[in-house]
Amino acid sequence: MSVKLLYEGKAKKVFATQNPNQVLVEFKDDATAFNGQKRGQIAGKGLINASLSAHLFRLLGQHGIPTHFVDDPKPRHLLVERLSIVPLEVVVRNRVAGSLQKRTGLEDGTILDFPVVEMYYKSDDLGDPLLNDDHIRVLNLAGVELTARLKDEALGVNAVLSPYLEGRGLILVDFKLEFGITDEGVLKLGDEISPDTCRLWDKETGKKLDKDRFRQDLGTVEEAYQEVHDRIVSR
Ligand code: TMP
Ligand code: ASP
């Protein structure tokens, strides 16, 4: 297999493969927060996030949700379909936390009457700002139809993941998804699903078991990632 590095981001490296429609993604232990202003390492994170993502992409596939996942050929790597990524981060929220708490003043942990979907502009230069539907249209980031489909798909992912994680003692507070389009024009879920991109709270104690432990310097970061992995993959 070729080892040509196509792209290196904050948490992943993407390599070309012999199949022009597939790439190999390596998950790094590097962690950043606040648009790269805070930097660190979470030992074992790459291994855990790749393994968790593979498990959850398989689960979504079984529920008829198309994803870029092809295979997990070796530790900390995923083989995925090459997508043309829509430059939007789609966030689904079941409870108040993070930037929604700051924007609304609602109490952390408040259960929302319905899952709230938000779109953010994938732009490091701008710090990933929140966009409304008109912003998305005027910037030509996605058409009206595609924007509606992104919301529907994201809600579909939530409808599968929320009860599944609840069954493993985890509250899915909120999460971020990225979507892309294949060569054949098919919309698929891309990126990863992990404690880097989801807020996961222990159902009994409310303990944060995700990247907020790193963002907020709460300690026992590695243990939290391992706990999530144990509950979802290793059980
Ligand atoms: P927020 O409350 O900071 O807006 O985050 C919402 C969700 O999105 C949360 O589960 C963490 C995730 N997220 C990312 O995956 N990447 C990011 O850059 C940010 C800011 C949040
Ligand atoms: N994507 C953000 C950044 O680097 C990290 C986050 O808060 O999840 O910096």
Number of domains: 2
What is the structural class? alpha+beta
The CATH C-level class name of the largest domain: Alpha Beta
Topology-level CATH name of the largest domain: D-amino Acid Aminotransferase, Chain A, domain 1
What's this entry about, in short?
By secondary structure, this protein is of the alpha+beta class. It has helices at 45-62, 98-104, 133-138, 144-166, 212-215, 221-234, and strands at 5-8, 12-16, 22-27, 30-33, 38-41, 69-71, 77-81, 84-85, 88-95, 111-121, 130-131, 170-177, 179-181, 187-189, 198-202.
Notes on the protein architecture:
With 235 residues, the protein is of the alpha+beta class. The chain folds into 2 domains: 2-81, 2-Layer Sandwich (Phosphorylase Kinase, domain 1); 84-220, ATP-grasp fold, B domain (D-amino Acid Aminotransferase, Chain A, domain 1, 2-Layer Sandwich), CATH 3.30.470.20. It is built from 6 helices and 15 strands. A 5-stranded antiparallel sheet has the order 1-2-3-7-6, with helices on one face. Strands 11-10-9-12-15 form a 5-stranded antiparallel sheet. A 3-stranded antiparallel sheet has the order 8-13-14, with no helix packed on it. Strand 2 (12-16) and strand 3 (22-27) form a beta hairpin. Helix 1 runs parallel beside helix 6 (221-234). The longest helix has 23 residues, at 144-166. The radius of gyration is 17 Å and the shape is globular. The model has no long low-confidence stretch (mean pLDDT 97). Residues 91, 97-100, 128, 174-176, 197-199 line the site of thymidine-5'-phosphate. The site of aspartic acid has 8 residues, from strand 4.
